[in-house]
Structures are given as C-alpha cells and as structure tokens.
Amino acid sequence: MSRKSAVVAIGGNSLIKDKQHQSVRDQYIAAGETCWHVASMIKDGWDVAIGHGNGPQVGFILRRSELAAHELHEVPLDVCGADSQGAIGYALAQNLENDFHRLDVDRHAVAVVTQVEVSKDDPAFQAPSKPIGSFMDEPEAMRRRDHEGWSVKEDAGRGWRRVVPSPEPIRIVEVDAIRSLIENRFVVISVGGGGIPVVADEKGELTGIAAVIDKDHACSLLANEIEAELLLITTAVEKVALDFGRPTQRWLDRMTLSQAKEYLAEGTHFLPGSMAPKMEAVVSFLERGGGTAIITDPENVERALAGETGTRIVAE
C-alpha cells in the first residue's frame, strides 16, 4: 500500500459538542468520535499529523486560575496553551491507540507539545483582537490594564474582556521531531491550538508570549513543512457554502485556488472566526506548493477522501 501523507486539522466541535457536554469525560467521548474516522483513514494507508483547537479548554484553565488567585499564582497564557496541548493530546492519543487496537492497525499515536514562532513585528501586536478569559467589570478591566499591561475591550454590553494578538505562524520549532516521528510511522498530534506562540530575540533565543495563533493557519504551515500532499480541515458542516446562511446559499463540491482567493476577496461568503480562516489556511497551503485541501465534517472524512462529499480545493 502506497504511503500518503496528510495533516488533519480538528475543529473545536470535535471536542465540545455543546454547553451541556463540557466535562473532561464529555470531551474525551467527543474526541473519540472524530478519532475513529481518522483511524479509519490511517488504516487505508495515510500517514497523518493531527492539529486541534483549544480555545474553550484554555478558557477553562484561565478561569480556574482566576478563581484560585487568592491562594495560587495565576497561569500565563502561553503555559495555558502548553497545559491544554498535553491534556487534549492525551485524549486524542489514547482514543487513537484504542481504535488501532480495534482495527488491528499496527500504529501508535504520540503528542508533541509544540512551539510555533511568530514575528515580534507582526502587525497583529499593534491591534490585539482575540478575546480570552472571563468577562470583567470596567474597574477590574482597568486595573488589569494598568497593573498587568493587558489590552482590554468592552464586548457588546456583556462586560469587558482581555484581548490578545493573533499573529501569523512563521516556523514550527519542533518540526524536525514531528517529521521524524511520521517517517517512523507514528501518528503525531501537534500544533495544538495553533501552537504555543514564541518569539526569537536577536540571539535566536525563544520566549513565550501572550497571543493566540489560528490553528488552521498553523496546520497549513505544518502541512507544507512536512510536505504533506493533503490538508484536511474538519468543521461543523459537510461542505463549504457561498452566501452561507442566506436564501442564496449554495454548497460547493470543488473549487480552484484562484476561485478560493476570489471568494475570500469578495468578503461576503465566509464568516470571520468561522470559515474565513479555514479558507485562508487552504489558500496559504496551496500557494506554498501544497497539492489538495478538503473541508468537511468529521463523520464524512472517509466519504470526502473518496470524492463523494466535502469541498475539495486544488491549485488549478
């Protein structure tokens, strides 16, 4: 069986289904449902690296830290990212190991706590936009701003929140280890939550920073760096749609890179924080020499790979 390589970006809906199912056990069960489809893909001959979201999980860690602040030190955002990578990586790896056992597949999964370098000159640092953590009243927000240097914004009358930059990933620090593991037939879980954002100083030494990297953008970069032929992004819908949510909505089976760029430029088809970053990640992957991207929901992964559903995006 020929070796085929893919990066699979798992969406947040694969970990938390709804507000009634947010416990650690609920997240484990939800992760398992997606892992089964990825394991089936691996049984069919794919070498896979997996990336995943971590937004709600980081929010939970921050909230616990805030509630315990009267007794314990608070946890910095970059460390929250590392903590969540470990916990989610554990859940995904264990589910995959169990699936491989059931499917009689001689493969193993490993999670890599992953740092992702960003540029300290990225324009995102001048315009923090990503809300994190709990809502605060205005006096608390001003105190945090003045004493801890936070950027804060009022959120549609619901209260104040901390906002952090969302810079573009430029280098995956552990990419050589990830590549070596894949070459040795491991299934690698990495760039969780877009990776732990780090910046390099003039000596090349790394420091973690308070930022959030888009996980689809990080998965796109990973796919190029390990020369994967496929970027597979799972989300809440079976296919990509134009005019999503409108009477003129129409589902797409296939598009080219030039069409994807045109639809993105129109600015009306894909919602920010939803499908837009996924399409941006696909465009970047293809522009950097990637072969094919597919967007679909987890339960249709096998059918999408067979060309029966999902949206397939190709260079031309």
Please specify the SSE layout and strand pairing:
Layout: E1 4-10, H1 24-43, E2 46-52, H2 55-67, H3 77-103, E3 108-111, E4 115-117, E5 130-136, H4 138-148, E6 151-154, E7 160-164, E8 171-172, H5 175-183, E9 186-189, E10 196-200, E11 206-208, H6 215-225, E12 230-234, E13 240-242, E14 250-252, E15 254-256, H7 257-266, H8 275-287, E16 292-296, H9 301-305, E17 311-314
Parallel strand pairs: 1-2, 1-12, 2-9, 3-9, 4-10, 12-16, 15-17
Antiparallel strand pairs: 4-8, 5-7, 6-7, 10-11, 13-14, 16-17
Helix pairs in contact: 1-3, 2-3, 6-8, 7-8
The main sheet orders its strands as: 3-9-2-1-12-16-17-15
Net shape: globular
Could you list the spans in which at least 5 consecutive residues all have pLDDT below 50?
none
Percent of residues in beta strands: 15-25%
Q: Which superfamily, in CATH terms, is the homologous superfamily?
A: Acetylglutamate kinase-like
What is the number of E strands? 17
What class would the helix/strand composition place it in?
alpha/beta
CATH structural class: Alpha Beta
**How many individual helices?**
9
Overall pLDDT level = 93
Q: Which structural traits does this protein have?
A:
23% strand, 316 residues, single chain, Carbamate kinase, 4-stranded mixed beta sheet, 9 helices, globular, 38% helix, alpha/beta
